[in-house]
């Protein structure tokens, strides 16, 4: 991502996942051109470990102090997003 004149490039933003299996997890996600996280994010293994399992859909909910929130939408059954 390129920076505007005088503005540093932002490549990641901090998000807090709200609801679902990743509730209260904070993680850096790639920044969109508007400076926020992606509109939707599919999260597998919220703890970063474990066997292949279900995928969890989160949507961008808004800004909060120092970052953004991603709201839980639903869980895809195993294999549905592949």
Brief digest:
With 82 residues, the chain is an all-beta fold.
Give short descriptive properties of this protein.
five-stranded mixed beta sheet, mainly beta, globular, 82 residues, single chain
Describe the 3D structure.
There is one protein chain. The chain is mainly beta. The chain is about 0% helix and about 45% strand. Strand 1 and strand 2 form a beta hairpin. About 10% of the residues are buried.
Strand percent estimate = over 45%
* CA-CA gap between termini: 28 Å
Low-confidence stretches: 1-5
Which series of helices and strands comes N to C? EEEEE
The beta-strand count equals 5
Q: Could you give a short account of the major beta sheet? A: 5 strands, mixed
Strand order of the largest sheet: 2-1-5-4-3
Cα Rg:
14 Å
Mean pLDDT: 81
Number of helices: 0
Roughly how much helix do the residues carry, as a percent range? Answer: under 10%
Q: Which structural category fits the helices and strands?
A: mainly beta
**Can you tell me the overall shape?**
globular
